Amino acid sequence: MAEETLLYEGKAKKVFATSDPGVVRVLYKDDATAFNGEKRGTIAGKGAINNQMSNLLFRYLEEHGVPTHFVEEISERETLVRKVEIIPLEVVVRNIAAGSFSKRFGIEEGTPLERPLVEFYYKNDALGDPLVTDDHALILHLATADDLAELRRLALAVNDLLVRRFREAGLILVDFKLEFGRLPSGEIVLADEISPDTCRLWDERTREKLDKDRFRRDLGGVEEAYQEVWARLKGGVAR
Ligand code: TMP
Ligand code: ASP
Q1: What is the pTM of this model?
Q2: Contact 181, 24 (CB under 8 A)
Q3: Does residue 123 sit in the same domain as residue 10?
Q4: Which of the chain's ends, N or C, has fewer CB atoms near its CB within 10 Å?
Q5: How much is the pLDDT for 4?
């Protein structure tokens, strides 16, 4: 079937062509990697959770005015999305110091930041996704100045909306990574996924980590953390 043409296989997802040239099918895998692929494993049930959670959040963001690539969920693990040209920048937003920010600047994990921080990383596995300044991005032709302004605006809007949505689920949104794509019209839309793979989420009361850091740091209870986040977001769990 023409539908089965594999266009791309990443660490956590496969992307297939469909009969519509403007639409692709994304299949979420249970595979997990960290530290640029150095650490590998499987998180049972992750594909289904990340797919459904991303879709729930993309619908919520769309309802609040953020354009996304989302079209239609077609199974637990599969979604149709608009075909975009991915902008080669990972856009990270941080509310609380953690991860590479804590390490780079020697600031204790858990320290609140005085306002949300937006960072750009060059999406390039061979280089280990280095942090880039606006000038780096411009001189390397990764994006235009207008693009960077739009990415920052959208990322901060997404942050405000997600902080609120996760708070309703008893979760603190510490930081997260977004990817954006360009439609044939030139419009920039939110793409990729929003899941415990791409967000740091802490329990609001205990500050327990409920995200991929449990896998990265060998903390155990990885599957349970993903299930907990998904159950809370769906609103199915009494706390
Ligand atoms: P960092 O502290 O390691 O820079 O990560 C910041 C956020 O970005 C964190 O929520 C995890 C997410 N992230 C990804 O989604 N993919 C990546 O490859 C990396 C390094 C981080
Ligand atoms: N996804 C990235 C990798 O595979 C890193 C991470 O999420 O920590 O290496």
Answers
A1: 0.96
A2: no
A3: no
A4: N
A5: 83
